[in-house]
Write a structure and sequence with these properties.
The protein has 692 residues and is mainly beta. The chain folds into two domains: 499 residues, Beta Barrel (Maltoporin, Chain A), CATH 2.40.170; 159 residues, no CATH class. The protein contains nine helices and 32 strands. Strand 16 and strand 17 form a beta hairpin. The two termini are 40 Å apart.
Amino acid sequence: MKAAVLVALLAFSLPAMAQHDEEWDRIMQALAEDYDDAAADDDAAEAFQAQMEELAALHDNPLDLNRCSRYDLLALPFLDDDEADAVIDYRTLHGTIRSVSELLLVGRLSTTHARWLQLFVEVLPADVAARGSRPPSSHHDLMTRLDIPLYERQGWPWARGIANRLRYTGQWNNHWDVGLRAEKDSGEPIFNRQNPFYDAWGGHVMFKDWKWLRTLVIGDFQVSFGEGLVMNTAFHLGKQVSALWRTASSLRPHRSTDECRFLRGAAATVDLSREWTLTALYSYRSLDATVQADNTVRSINSTGLHRTASELSHKGTLGNHTAALHAQWHKPLGHLGATAAFLRYDHQFSQGTSLYRQIYPEGYLFGVAGVDYAFHSNHFHVHGETAYSLSASSPSPSPSPSRGSLVGGFPADTRSSRGGWAMLNKAVWRFNANTHLGLVQRFYAKDFISPHAQAFGENSRVQNESGLCLFFEADRLGPFALHALFDWFYHPWPRFTMTRSSQGCEAACALTWQPRKGSTWLLRYNLRNKEQSDVRHFSHRLRLTHTRQLGSLWTLTATAIGHRYVEPQTGIVSNGFTLFPKIDYGSRDGQWRCSLLLAWFNTHDYDSRLYIYEPGLYQSFNWSMIYGRGERAAATVRWQSPASVGRQRLRWHWQAKVGLTHYDDRDAISSGPLLVCSPWKADVSLLVRLRF
């Protein structure tokens, strides 16, 4: 019986390989839609783009399913401890896994995660797997991309608006990994006195899997420990995804084009024994900041853009030293870990006089320590982290409120050192592999300062927030799948635009219906109840998507999105609506893929703005933020050569994208140096990739 099932799975995997890229695009679109609905009001598009690129890097470097370790699997954030153990147990029981489709037979692995995992693993040929290791080999990946605007902005000449990125990755014998990258954003100068080379560049050298040395990275890298309260420069996606996914404790090279959220130096993870691992790191980076007349800084610029004279003057003005140590003791039923990090900046942070800034970092020395834990059984999972931070500053040359005074009615505390607590706990009950019920509790004190933290929450900063989140996930309810989330949050200290404490809630529900093979309906509703400028507002978003397979080569997707913004106190009501069909074509041999998207949108104003996700080129994920009245069109063409040409296994990838936006209610787009004196805006993107 088992042999018959395996034969069926192997037969199924042949046509499934042709749909590999389509499945990847569907997953990326699902993550993008979750980000849109859950965090569209946050100014974090650059951060999310970087996380998606990191996920794409894992996709491009698949794990060998017959040789990967539990640690390798846990680097994938959507897998929990029990699911990683289930894959290892299945492999131990059956010896060799013959096809990635066998993941559907792993009992404790959900259907959705089994389908996702197939995109991040591979199975070597039987003769290679029988020898127990890869043959000596090397893999090289060279990519360049050019983004050309067919318009001119007021702030710079047309040619300077061209953006370009270069990237090279080389791997040898599954132990060495070398990478180089360079990027120039649109509007940034290049090859002149201000920028003699590309504006942003970096690289890494990684050595892994040698005796007790698990990973060694020199150059640019990313780390995440525990739940991210002390250190997490890796994944942090939408709220619903963050509730379901786990913060993976990992060390890996930084491969994306993000210019801010990474570390630069050296880091290593070693296995002290079967139960103990230790990670140590040191980083020094030059950050962008505005240095005040008193030699202090107020905040760090995380956009990575250096287009204007003002932006160039802030480039690299703040140095940051970071040292951290993480130890973990792990058993089959869970783990216990401890993290300590020390940060020193070349300039001292100052809070300023604004009320909301009185809890911002102050000083130049920061220390954070935390303890993380996890326990899991067949049905119950608990994991969390508790951290404490300390900061110290030298005497400030500028006057500041004394301790015990009032700022806007709130007590000011400007001691030379202060500390705060943070706590995050998650509990998940698994009814079966496809049905989960979970609770997330968080408490981030207003005095908690952790510059490298990223964790579940309403704000991008892990500070000044408490909350409870309840979520439910059922992937198989007959032809239906249901994902629901409710989150309540409270901010004790006034946020930006607020003069008092505030609270709010968010509710999200997504229902997927697949009446038959090749036809899927998705209905997603999101409600956000928040306070801004001391006025409460409600934001309602409704999305309806229908996907239909038109034969084996064509796919039609039609999406309608409605957004209603309401302020009951002021009587302001703003509505927005967009409709965009998209058609995709993929050739039978997998060499050609094309897509065309057409959108029509109409919103009252910026409050009811909408976001359209567009599949882009390789490792690129694009949103079009739209408001007003107009139309949007985007077309992509991708071609790749056959899997191998001769002995060198040479493979070319050529991709192109054209995007066109037209506004009916204005004669110009944007303002200031970004001003385009036309209601039309068109862009062309070209990408060439060579793998050998």
